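Go through this one:
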Amino acid sequence: MQSLVRLLPLLAAVNALVPAPRPNVVAEAESHNEPRGLGTSAEIYVYNHWSQALTVTGTDNQHMNISPPANFKVGPNAVSQKYAIEANGWVPVQSSFKLNLKPDGGSQSTINVDIGVSPWRTGFSLNSKNPAGQVGVLLAPAKILEAGRDFDFHFFSGPGSFTSFVQGQIDQKLPETLAKVKGKKFVVNSDIEITVNDVVKPVVKVTYVNLGNGPNGLLVDAIANVDGEAQLTITFKGVTQKSNIKVKGLAALITGDAKLGASIELDVKRFQASIDSIDISGDILVDIVGVLYPIFAPVLKLPYKLASIVNTSENAKVMGYINTAIKAIASGNSPIIKLGQASRRVIA
């Protein structure tokens, strides 16, 4: 997130390259309690960042109870309506489909999607012949195994003009940023201190970035994938312990309004995430999460459930914390994040 904030002045300099301005078409995921069958369900949203209409076709449906529409169009710089899909819960095999996205006068991109809950897989792959950087995908857990949909599937299609540019900037600045974090002590309160000893083999890959004109200046849509391991030393109520957090396949979708002036202002309007796996060593870290944010403690080692809570019931609070931290960082201050009833300093 900090990398995106720092990159905004550079992105503004090339804003003239944006093919066409577009309105803010952020579609917030809504909770629904509609009856459904036994199969894994999802709601599909397709975002068109082209200045031309986008044709979407659903093909190669395998073991689907409700398949994506065979054909529909999304207008220029717009978002589609919600489409509900559902895997076949009666057949013990993997369900899947393909989604083809083709802007008028442009090249087609194909997304291969699996849908299911363990032992089946929910994931995607992109056709190797797709134009580079023109498709973004996030399969966000929603209400896993509860009433309503299991996932929100977000599919983006656009010129991808800024994807490689932002990736290059992150590759350049990431080592410097990590060097500043290494050895940094995070003082939460008199009982809790966290020191970042090292960040091992971090990989930050930006898969899609679109920059357009929003109602308050710039509108940023970005999807990034993160892998890595943080090695920590944690002190909790006088007890010190080594703890590692290893994350694989963390993907985040961020949409925000940005203003450029004497200072940078970024207001995150949408944050959705998914995660393949999370490995946490050290009981003290779980205890600390239980104190700071109790709802997350029981699911800290359950990646799908953790992501579903972030994306649904706690989403507004999480975005509030992110925006508070961004404003503090932009002003050069240490972020103060309100967790529970007290304000706690998270960066010493």
User: Anything to note?
Assistant: Residues 2-12+161-345 form one domain. The two ends are 19 Å apart (CA to CA). The chain has two domains: 2-12+161-345, 19-157.
